[in-house]
## 1
Amino acid sequence: MEQRTLGRDLKVSALGLGCMGFSHAYGAPTDRTEAIRLIQQAADMGYTFFDTAEVYGTADAPHHNEELVGTALKSCRDQVVIATKFGIRFDMANLAVNKPMIPDSRPQVIRASVEASLKRLGTDHIDLYYQHRADPNVPVEEVAGVMADLIREGKITHWGLSEANEDTIRRAHAICPVTAIQNRCSMMARWYESLFPALEELNIGFVAFSPLANGFLSAKHGKDARFETGTDYRSVMPQFTPEGVERNRELLELLHRLAEEKEATPAQISLAWMLCKKPYIVPIPGTRKLERMRENAAAADISLTASEVQALDNELNNMEMSQVFGGTKIVK
Ligand SMILES: NC(=O)c1ccc[n+]([C@@H]2O[C@H](COP(=O)([O-])OP(=O)(O)OC[C@H]3O[C@@H](n4cnc5c(N)ncnc54)[C@H](OP(=O)(O)O)[C@@H]3O)[C@@H](O)[C@H]2O)c1
């Protein structure tokens, strides 16, 4: 797969693999042996960038995902980039399927997190360590200071911020250079495109999470789609409701039309659109199916010219769409 560079020097495959769904948010976790095999198969087919977080898991196994990723990538650890995240926990007493997040980036909490993540991942360093969400009680400068210490100690090599705004990025970067942000980005969630000038000025990469709008942009889910109510976040996402699907009809038609023109699939068009927009965007679609990993990886081979991307943007700007899931509530 094509390689891209995040920040100054972090080389990754043009698409990374979002590993969250093996353990969290998309129904019951995948069978452990199967998940490990799939992650290894992704590495074999050219994915070199794997995304996890300390909180991807279930009530019974709250850190399930890091352990899976570490086990799966043990034999090729030196050839891959592992990204994980610190700084939130879920409010497990809450009954919602998508439990509210409680931010906590106190330095002592980060210190404990990094040690535990290293252990679960079975590695002596994390390649990219993101603050999962800003902590209103801890200035980002203090977090950046801890990151600088962890880099000096060799426990992490690069760091980043998730769902960060421009002010936070600039303040963080001034203390310890930020390699990448990881923010929501898809044809239905374009609000962070306003960060492009700042990212270019500071040479910071953009890792795009939920690049398929949680699978909606694959155009595989119709009005009759049903998801597990207790474990699958899609059961409460506005884009998947029958009304949402109806309001997104024009978008789905556009994806089907372009897919036909480019001899591609709607998912590939959605990914190629952002890959062709900026060379520093790296989408990390999540899938638990081998064929879809291949399909998504092949999006890197689809080229859209700058004017095709612009024309697509114009269509997206002027089209009716439903709301899209914007993230789990944060406890202030
Ligand atoms: N920083 C953050 O706060 C944050 C938040 C959310 C996610 N993330 C990261 O971003 C990654 C991706 O985000 P996401 O999983 O929320 O959303 P996504 O990648 O937009 O969508 C994932 C969904 O799309 C389906 N899918 C993937 N490829 C497909 C294809 N080619 N055709 C049809 N369906 C396809 C998957 O189903 P199957 O598994 O059944 O294929 C899954 O249900 C996560 O794994 C996680 O690592 C980070």
## 2
Amino acid sequence: MERRSFLKNAAVAAPFLGQAFGASDELRIAQIGLGTRGAYELEVCQRTKGAKVLAVADVYQPLVDKYVAASNGTLTGYQDFRRVLDRKDIDAVFVSTPDHWHAPIAMLACQAGKDVFCEKPLSHTLHEGQQMVAAARKYNRVFQTGSQQRSATHFQKVVELIHAGTIGKITCIECWNEENDTPEGAGNPPDTTPPQGLDWDMYLGAAPKVAYNRNRYIWHYRWFWDYSGGMMTDWGAHHMDIIQWAMKVDGPLSATAVGGRFCLKDNCQTPDTLMTVFEYPGFIVRYSVRQGNSRRIEGRPNGIAFYGTDGTLIVDRGSWEIIPENASRFPNDYDRVEAWLKGGNVAWPAGFDRNAKVAAKPRCQAMGETGLKIDPACQEAHVDNFLACIHSRQRPAADVEIGHHSISACHVGTIAYRLGRKVKWDAAAQTFPGDAEARAMMTKKYRAGFALPAV
Ligand SMILES: NC(=O)c1ccc[n+]([C@@H]2O[C@H](COP(=O)([O-])OP(=O)(O)OC[C@H]3O[C@@H](n4cnc5c(N)ncnc54)[C@H](O)[C@@H]3O)[C@@H](O)[C@H]2O)c1
């Protein structure tokens, strides 16, 4: 009897990933990448109960020195992340480098027996995402994608409401990022020698060897294809993650995308204006990116709107609301149209006054919240979830496979944009069926010495 109920419980629980820690064990952490996000993650980890940050790594030595100096001797610093992976006393790594380094670092960390928290967008290519999932599974690692919105209570609430059918059948979803970065965008800094203490060759990694340019390095690397995928993967990773979660799907059936770098006069590459339409079974998603005009959609600079037959649900990081649809003004007019087709009068049903003011009859309940804050609470919850899963060996809230599916949609959109045509995607088979040209874009060329680790 006992054995049967154990098996029953085991069947519904998330898969067990091997290795067990005592619940009281303090987890030993390393932070890789100390830029905008990495510095924040380091700060969160340093004040998280049950975690002890022992090491930091960044290709820019002055950043490493800065955090080591401020640590009262608690941190050891490295310029080469591989020295972190060599350490036997590190349980888990946080990877907050630009996107082109996520897969190599995360996969080597899995091989080295570390659990991994890797920033979104999980991968730089579809193939890398597939390999990251394979590595996490092969080496039995707990692997959290840094899609912290999954751990925000209000995103959890809206997903629950959608799952409960609150706004009816959703046939159309819009998500957007609208801002005005004109005219210069990231500007046009000249190529120079790299700053003192920056290992530029290591920064470039698998990407082609090019001269140092400030825009290719800190923050603006996002707008270069060799290191990232522009807004489509940067913010799209968050939007598509919530959309696919809410709609219980793993990927689109197809994508079409048009746009260009039309207005920003800088040396970056990814489109500043982009419309991508994804087709899913029974609904469509449009992602609108404008970096040349900040007029808000649904009153928000970024967000997601789910349009359902009974209401509209709009959510962003600071608020959510449901705006009900009203019951149709007209009674079912099948009989009236039938009569008209037979040559009768276009008569309204008896007693129906088409000019009368009709009291709104909401099809669902209006509700919502404003003034919410996504950080730090949800980042802390996301880190806590990761640490708890390291102990329990369960799969975390944004398990690598979830992160892979979310960013896959964005990569499919980007491939449609770069090919200038519609592409069909098979999320279950993880391929572009019958489309060798699109399939060739699932991976990239790796510079000698920086091949993706084999799984
Ligand atoms: N979850 C979120 O909401 C969120 C927010 C911001 C950024 N991010 C993600 O975090 C990642 C980093 O973004 P950012 O804005 O902090 O970039 P950033 O340019 O500010 O910092 C990147 C840092 O990584 C370092 N680096 C580069 N290659 C390295 C390597 N091989 N080894 C060690 N260090 C290396 C750089 O020197 C730099 O300090 C990106 O993938 C980004 O999408 C996520």
